[in-house]
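Dear support,

We are seeing what looks like truncated structure output for some complexes. This example has two components. We would appreciate it if you could run it in full and send us the complete token output so we can diff it against ours.
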Amino acid sequence: MSYVRDVGALARKDLLLELRARDTLPAMLLFVAAVFVVFHFTLPGSPSRLETSGLLWVAILFTALLGLGRAFVPEREQRTLDGLVLAPCDRSAIWLAKSLATLAFLAAAEVVALPLYALFFHRVGGATVAAVVLADLGICAVGTFLGAMAVATRARDLILPLLFLPLAIPIVVGAVGATVVASPGRYLGFLALYDALFAVICWASFEYVVSE
Amino acid sequence: MLDARRLGKRYGEKRVLRGIDFAVPRGGFLVVTGPNGSGKTTLLRICAGLAQPTEGTIERSATRAQLGYLGHESLVYRELTALENLDLYGRLYHLAERRERIGMVLERFGLWEARHQSVASYSRGMTQRLALCRVLLHEPELLVLDEPYSALDEAGAELLDAQLAELRGERTFLLATHDPERVASLATGRLALAA
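Here is the complete output from our reference environment:
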């Protein structure tokens, strides 16, 4: 129970920081809206569902990357990670809370992104929404873990996309598949498996990322 | 409480610490001195468990819950208020009477009136006072303090003097300072590091 309370306290802190600073969510919203507007005017004629599904996932992935890149910025700029690491809570609570906060920002961006996609391109079906939910979990779990690794390096802005994008390829494969095929069950299952596998790996190894 | 044997630390080719031996018994007050670059901060980070030695061993009988660490940074969030920062740490340290304890430390360091202000609006001295509140909030057994008088005005320094004098003997201290005379009457030992 105390683990849940620790995660709650840390996630609340991340949401409060965003509420005060407002430097992540507005950027994500503007970015994803701009991407769809640009795609709308650059794509010729009436693009197929297959083509625009790819664009949807490119937009989601890069919007998430924007949020993930900022996830550990307060801890880096104010060196507060030492304070969190010294606290007697399980260190994986830091990762889980950050992942949940980033998930909240990404979900908020998608509340704007999906209607825009529907407006400019094609209807968003239930399978797409399910794929978005499952993909978000994997993106935030893996991305937050890598964000914590990247923040300790000098080339942090370069390291995060270099580490994250290759690991996100299975997410894109599963998500695009679930969006375009008639029976998306297999792809959704694949996404759920990815989420479970990487969540366990990140949860179990986060301690080593924040320890010297 | 703390027992260091042949402690050493290297960052790549650069050796920061070499062959440091010391022991601090429960209730002891060890003052660490030395010029800039002598490895005081590195030594304190090792003692707090934030860094690992590359040579030798260190044994610490205090758990993370029993440790209070003050570094060069205040370890508080600038966008949050003093109350929100201490509430976060109070929750993470699972304090039973969190609100009472937060009120007590804020009163003690003269920050009660400014408790709803964001830390970004604090002066350097007020931020250092808040950092001391954070360190003392959970009543740690072992206090590792790196330049605790840094940025404090005379009133703040006197508050800290009184706090250290009150806790001396009950708690164990490892304190790095450029002004060892200020804590000379409290010290039970001194470790002088060479550059």
